[in-house]
Amino acid sequence: MYRLFKLKRLYQLNSKVTPPYTSEPAKQSCSVCSHNFAMKPRNDAQFIQNAVPKRFQSTNIHTAIQNSHKTKKKKIRRSKKKYAELVEVTDGASNQTKASVSKLKPKHLSLLVKQPDINLGQLYNLKNVTEQSVMSPEMDTSHQTQDNIEPVVMSKSISAEKVYLLRELKCENHAKVSEVEELDVLNYEHELADTHDRSIDDLEFKPKMVALGTAVLEHNLVDDPICHSQEMEDELDESIVEAISAEEEHGEPAVEAMASIVPVPELPQAKSNEKKSKDATFKMTYKKGVRDQMAKVKLTDLEKAAKEECLYRNLYAYLETCVSCGLLNRALFSLLFYHSRSRYSRYTSPANEIELFNILLHGFARKGNLNKVKEIHGILRRERLPLSAQTFAALFECIGRLPADSAATYQILKGYVEEMSQKGLTFNDIIQKSVFVSDQREVVVDVIRRIEPNFEPDSILPDMCYACNLLHELNSENRSGKGRTYKSPAEGLMTKSDLQQLIKEQLQTELNSYVKVKTVEDRTEPNETILYYRKRLQEAQDNWKETICEAYHRDLRVLRVQQHYRVFRHINLYPYLKVLDPEDYFEIILQEIRKLAEGSETYSPTTNQLYRDLGDQVRKRYEIKFKTNSGILEKVVHLYKEYCDWYLAPEDSEQIMNTRQKWQQLEYENPEGPSVNMEEKSWPPSVLGGVGKFLYNIIMRDIKIDVNIVKVNSKTEHLLPAFYTLFRTQGRLLKEEVKPHPVLARLFRGAAQEDLVFEVADVPMLCPPLPWTSVNSGGYLLAKEALIRLHHQAAQQRHLLKKTPVQQLYPSLDSLNQLGSVPWIVNESVLDVAIEVFNSGGSQQLDIPEPPSSCPAPSAVTPEMTKKERFQAFRQRMALRRRKAEMYSLWCDTLYRLSLANHFRKRIFWLPHNMDFRGRVYPCPPHLNHLGSDMARSLLCFAKGEPFGPNGFDWLKIHLINLTGLKKRDTVDERLQLAEELLPEIMDSAEKPLTGRMWWAQSEEPWQTLACCMEIAKAVKSGDPENYVCHFPVHQDGSCNGLQHYAALGRDEAGAESVNLKAAARPQDVYSCVAALVERERIKDAEAGLKIAQVLEGYISRKVIKQTVMTTVYGVTRFGARLQIARQLKDIENFPKDYVWQGSTYLVGKTFESLQEMFTSTKEIQDWFTECARLISQVCGQNVEWVTPLGLPIVQPYSRPNKKLEAQSTVKEIKEHYALDMFERPNVMKQKNAFPPNFIHSLDSSHMMLTSLFCEREGITFVSVHDCFWTHPSSVDIMNKVCRNQFVSLHSQPILEDLSEFLVRKYSYAEREFSDDGSVGDTAKRRLNRILRKLPFKGDFQLDSVLESVYFFS
Predict the structure, then answer these.
(1) Which residues contact 557 (CB under 8 A, 6 or more apart)?
(2) How far is CA 912 from the centre of its chain?
(3) C-alpha angle 494-495-501 in degrees, rounded to nearest 5
(4) What mean pLDDT do residues 845-859 have?
(5) What was the pLDDT predicted at 1222?
(6) Which of 141, 441, 586, 882 is 20 to 30 A (C-alpha) from 716?
(7) Listed residue (1334, 1087, 1131, 1112) closest to 1240, CA to CA
(8) What is the pLDDT of residues 484-532, one digit of tens each?
């Protein structure tokens, strides 16, 4: 570099030296006559050949100038052969070999089935084998060649196993692929992946992939389905499902069915198609232009705002991470770089920008670096950025870290105080509006006392009451002091010292991040083979740890060198890979290796999903480390211990109504130290993916497996990569997945490890959850779980929740706290029976999955088979493969649930809760909870028991009959009488569950029936049932709860009666009523001679149409309803299978007509919801929002990602922009179809929350599974009264009127926004305003009738 600069300087100062790159020849003068002339280069080839070459690089400048004239000879690069390492796995052995990629043709692999004796290394012998034609005989062969339609072979997804054609966008020739040949190849598709280079470039079909790359296979887009048009995907998915269903019903090949759905363009009409394509493009562009003109916010403004928000989030996370790692100068340099770019384009708002500078101010202040703090402060003043209270807190902190006796420092402090006063801030504002960590608060207070020696910070107690009209009754009780004090659901279960010990155990578990649970799988004592496998696995893991250590430090050094130069100023990954100790990264990678090795053989997440999940593991550990180092953990533990002491024995003198209020009081009384309520450490998706990809590169390229490791007598070592990638087609998308080497999977299976490993957030807690007091605080002690379950791109609802006053969220938060505060225990009697059935091979009747080994082996394919027979054989093989994958998934789910239940045997535990975006509540642990299947629900009981009392035993018996499904149309007294009659069967089931008459196994809910039988038997044997302490929960389920809310909204008299809103002597069954109406119409059509109506005689039952009626309220389409009814007709043994498709189509229409006849206002309301959502998303160009009656803001997260914001990410530089739903156009189809069911879900959630809060005030135990409410048998009467009262109270509110007012206020257009030109946009805007105000018609049903309805919830 020095020589180049010196040479340039020489050219500028010396006119006699001519640069070598000048276009003019060098001029020289004669030494005799001084005549100037130009030197002409000699064109003598011989002279050039004999010329003495001079080297190009020289320390002599003149030599360098002369050598620069020499033309550099271009090297000819020879094409190297590429080889793929193939793994040939049989039942007896596995062999490794190499084959040239150029010879590895997918069309040749299919012939291996016919000639199994040929080794994979002898593929060249297959070239001369006569191939079956892949061209359709109907097509003109003169226009097509094999090169035009050579099939691209990739692994097929089990969920979409049919064969589809991948076409290039500009392809003009199409042909069918032989179905048999395609299926042949699918058995060997995994052998096409090069296990060394891990790249699709090394596959034989690379040219085809490159051609398709610009069309449908661009990796960063293909791997993420949200980057494609959702409407096109929905249409294709429905078409595919329809084709597959047609094949199942009529035996038609899927390819032929797809051919009718996706028509192939005719070849002679190429020009016509091109013209149509141009017309379609013009129309689409025109429509987009019109929609953009109508939209509230223009697309360009959205894109600009999205870029600003994404860059701000990236910078915020990056700066925080740099400060945590001590990389302060790197952070400052990057921020100044992006700040300098704001002169040309604003990268974030001033308010956000000051937050970024505050991070650096606190980082330098902690070091006491006054010079840097003054430098940043000068930048802020020069740029006129609005200084916040947090800014002055950082300035004061820096002063506080310096010696207090310095006069210069005191003068600087006085200048900061004067500037603070000019901004209108006070010392109390600095304390109350700032967030502190570690000892920052004490340092700032000490600095303030240098100015005001008597300063004492004020602590403001937040308003703990509700702002919701529906909860004014609770507010009045709280303010007057007449309400009941909090009654602990764990009172008397344990002592305070016992709970303190459980707190320590839970904290240690969350610090470890993983929980090991012993499996319940029946395994004999480990034999020599198992012990050998375990030994070799342990040796391999030790070697992997050393390899991971070396690879991590090696790759990190490379990354550091690449980003060490000062000119590199962009956001990068280096700080994120230094934020934890290296051992933490090693442990994360080892856990990921085990998860991959023990995963399903037929399914795995895409690589992008794996990257994000692995990066999220790093983020979670970083958050725990941050809380530990910043003092937050210490303060949380201190407050939590006080909270748990109160939780076990609430003081009567305190007017604390719930757990949230107690935690707020504790925070108010203990303001010292760090702030507890801090935002989650959020990393952008690009960062999570980049960190995960960095770690996965180590897994894919450095982790090796000895293929001879399972051979006892083998002395040779042959190392191969332990993981490889393959590509699966899912619909029209191509997914990259990671699979373990077969030897590695066999090693883990053979080791038969006794422990299962779970993340800490996947298991229940050993102590009560932290109360939710805000969006950021609640749930586990350290492991952070989000309040709302949202996709990483769904940012709009998170943004709304942050803007919403926390008091408005109190009802939802308190309901989550109430549900999470209920302690549970495992029903050991039922658990023992379930484990016995599970280890005995499972049972289809009892819904216990059978092990995958019980799946029958596929029939062999022989050369003597005809083409049709081979096709059927391969089709059977694919069906068995899918069935085995489903069996394995269900078997693993049951294994996890039973193992966790066994792990918590004889222990009390708690289940933290959170919500989805509609407000529906779910337990955080996914495996062991009361929200699962029948068997899962039967495993849990309340930890705290209650005596039956006068009516409790009767309610338990009625609950038993409800579980059996025998008396759905009978009265409560008739159900109780049946229970008395069945008492001998109940006792037999309880005493001999597997060896007796097994009456319980015939129930609709067999496992819950068995658990209820056991509880009844215990009560009978106690001799005093009225005083028997029962832990068993009794359910009260809503009668088609969605239709109940619709009927109440529309005051529909007939609909309300059919769903038991109206008092009646006997329960009404809406499903039977609809079935009767359908049968009436069928009889009419049969008499008119309609064939399908005659075939359906005797087959229209309640069960056939139940699911369709149930899901109609939740937006099921005709296509989905037809699949539901077709499934029920197929299960009827005597129904003619040839009429399944035709019969289901007929019944769908009749079912929808009957529902519309029964629920007149329901259909009108549903149509109004749909039309409002369509116009809002299509005209306004925004996602549909609303607020529940309890104040929870809701946004539908269905949008179309803007591909312009998708930028490539590299390890060096993280992409700055990514998709966020708040800055994207909505998916109109999903918005309009989802709004009716989502709004109803938000109403049933509001009803549940109201019931939860008032049951807590009544002092009874309450738990819900959406619209199914649980409590003790003794408190069923109280819960029923609360449930009915709150339903009436909820629907007495003007729900539809409030919704219309909200939508008008947010989405309607003002008069000044109309153009009055009769244009499409103007007409659409006026229609939107009209529809939003046009409320549906209401009937005259009286809501008070619900209070007297026995079967409303029963």
Answers:
(1) none
(2) 19
(3) 95
(4) 87
(5) 81
(6) 586
(7) 1112
(8) 778 899 988 999 999 999 999 999 999 998 899 999 988 778 888 888 9
What residues have CB less than 8 Å from 315, skipping those under 6 apart? 334, 335, 338, 348, 356, 571
What is each CA distance from 271 to 171, 268, 274, 1025, in whole angstroms?
A: 13, 8, 5, 86
Cβ atoms of 745 and 601 within 8 Å: the answer is yes
Residue 169 clears pLDDT 60, i.e. is over it: no
Q: Distance between CA atoms of 1335 and 888, rounded to whole angstroms? A: 51
- 274 exposed, middle or buried (CB, 10 Å; 0-12, 13-18, 19+)? exposed
pLDDT band at 548 (very low <50, low <70, confident <90, very high): very high
Predicted confidence (pLDDT) per residue in 1168-1185, tens digit: 999 999 999 999 999 999
Q: How does 10-45 read in b/e, with b if 16+ C-beta sit within 10 Å?
A: eeeeeeeeeeeeeeeeeeeeeeeeeeeeeeeeeeee
Residue 293 has pLDDT above 70, yes or no: yes
Q: Cβ contacts of residue 471 below 8 Å, gap of 6+?
A: 811, 1250, 1253
Phi and psi, residue 923, nearest 5°: -70, 145
Q: What is the pLDDT of residues 931-953, one digit of tens each?
A: 888 999 999 999 999 999 999 99
513's tokens: 């991040």
Return the exposure string of 198-234: e unless at least 16 CB atoms fall within 10 Å of the residue's CB, then b: bebebbbbeebbebbeeebbeeebbbbeebbebeebe
Q: Is the pLDDT of residue 827 over 80?
A: yes
pLDDT at 1204: 55
788 strand-pairing partners: 915
Distance in angstroms (rounded) separating the CA atoms of residues 122 and 104: 10
Residues 963/1009, Cβ–Cβ less than 8 Å: yes
Of 27-31, 696-700, 913-917, 1234-1238, minimum mean pLDDT range: 27-31
CA 919, CA 339: separation in Å to the nearest integer? 40
User: pLDDT for 1038-1072, tens place per residue?
Assistant: 888 888 999 999 998 888 888 899 988 888 888 88
**What is the C-alpha to C-alpha distance for residues 903 and 899, in angstroms, rounded to an integer?**
6
Which residue, 1150, 1125, 1154, is CA-closest to 1140?
1125
Q: Yes or no: say if 878 and 870 are a contact pair by the CB < 8 Å rule.
A: no
3-state secondary structure of 730: strand
The predicted pLDDT at position 139 comes to 41
Q: Where are the alpha helices (DSSP H) in 904-1031?
A: 934-938, 952-964, 972-981, 983-991, 1006-1022
pLDDT digits (tens, 9 = 90+) for 645-672: 999 988 765 677 899 999 999 999 999 9
Evaluate whether 399 touches 409 at the Cβ level (below 8 Å).
yes
* Assigned token pair, 808: 């408005």
Does residue 1238 register a pLDDT over 90?
A: yes
Nearest residue to 1107 (alpha-carbon basis) of 1147, 1068, 1051, 1066: 1147
- Residues in CB range of 731: below 8 A, 6 or more apart: 160, 164, 233, 236, 237, 240
CA distances (Å), origin 1056, targets 400, 1068, 1102, 1122 = 69, 10, 19, 26
Instruction: Please identify which residue in the block is written with the tokens 């509609």.
Output: 918
- Dist. CA 577–CA 571, nearest whole Å: 13
Residue pair 1010/993 in contact by the 8 Å Cβ criterion: yes
Which residues are catalytically annotated?
A: 1037, 1106, 1267
Half-sphere exposure of 1159 (CA within 13 A, CB side): 30
Q: How far apart are CA 82 and CA 61, in angstroms?
A: 45
Cα 18 to Cα 14, 29, 36: the distances in Å are: 9, 14, 15
Cα–Cα distance measured from residue 18 to residue 11, given in angstroms and rounded to the nearest whole number: 7
Q: Name the β-bridge partners of 728.
A: 155, 735
φ, ψ of residue 118 to 5 degrees: the values are: -80, 130
Cα–Cα distance measured from residue 1026 to residue 1044, given in angstroms and rounded to the nearest whole number: 35
Residue with tokens 């989905």: 1120
